Amino acid sequence: MRRFEFPVDRHHAKAVNETIGDIRHLQWSAALMAVLLGAGSAWLFVLGRPWSYIVGVVLAICALTSLFMVVWTPRKVGSVEDLYAKGELVPAVVSEIHPRGYTLLALVDIAKPDTAKPHYALVARTVRALPGKGYSVGARIPSTSVLGDRSTRSRGETYQMASIMPIAWGTRDSKVLAQAASQIDGVEWNLLSENISSSKKVRTSDGQFVLLDPADLPDELH
Q1: Rounded CA gap, 166 and 147, in Å?
Q2: Which residues cross the membrane (predicted)?
Q3: One digit per residue, pLDDT tens: the chain, 222 residues?
Q4: Pairing verdict, β 120-127 and 89-90
Q5: Which pairs count as long-range contacts for 108-115, CB under 8 Å and 24+ apart, including other chains?
Q6: Are strands 120-127 and 101-109 parallel, antiparallel or unpaired?
């Protein structure tokens, strides 16, 4: 696995990293749900009916589960430094420009660590903003892969979820960004450029990624 280590600017990441923002939004949603479920449970207990006690207990359990999500989510995902450190350095390019953001198309190996061969996929992520000046289609955005499963019971050779985080969300240093881009083989950048036209198909697919046929890959990626 190709990793890229760099000093993460936490203040910058907190301001622009949309992955961190998504986690924070999930926490707030879970906290709000816990409050609503807890209030509903309390009202049902006050109501004092036999059926209301049963429903109240169910709502109380759901409220506790939501509170657990508030605490568990950041611990499961880890810090922004952990996300960058655990992920693989991958190429991504601007593939679509929208009125309120961009779609990035990335080349990611979604094979699990014990899998003998790589499983390359095109991965799309629509972002609201990228630090720096305006970007055109084809602009190179070195990124880190973010992989996971929907369930701990998954036994497949590939991850069920795939996304990316631009290195630019973790640092303002242009030298670091240039270094990251230079560590990615030109074959990978070229393959992405050739597949920009597939961006919408990937973006609208289940999970926002599409596995590539090994026969369509250059020899360097086998």
Answers
A1: 14
A2: 26-45, 51-72
A3: 899 999 999 899 888 988 876 666 665 666 678 788 888 888 888 888 888 878 888 888 887 777 766 565 555 545 788 889 989 999 999 999 999 999 999 999 999 988 879 999 999 999 999 998 889 999 999 999 999 876 666 678 899 989 999 999 999 999 999 999 999 999 999 999 999 999 999 999 999 999 999 999 998 998
A4: unpaired
A5: 108/145, 108/147, 108/162, 108/164, 108/209, 109/145, 110/147, 110/158, 110/159, 110/162, 110/209, 110/211, 111/157, 111/158, 112/156, 112/157, 112/158, 112/159, 113/1, 115/157, 115/158
A6: antiparallel
Cα(60)–Cα(39) distance, integer angstroms: 9
Q: 42 is written with which tokens?
A: 């309390």
Cα separation, 161 vs 157, in Å, equals: 12
Q: Can you give the pTM of this predicted structure?
A: 0.80
Q: Residue 98's beta-bridge partner residues?
A: 101
Give first-to-last CA distance, the chain, whole Å.
14
> Residue 197 corresponds to which tokens in the numbers above?
């036209």
The alpha helices in the chain, defined as continuous H runs, are 10-16, 18-47, 50-77, 80-86, 174-182, 186-194, 199-203
Question: How many of the other CB atoms lie within 10 Å of CB of 206?
Answer: 6
Please choose, from the candidates 164, 139, 134, 162, the residue with its C-alpha nearest in 3D space to the C-alpha of residue 150. Answer: 162
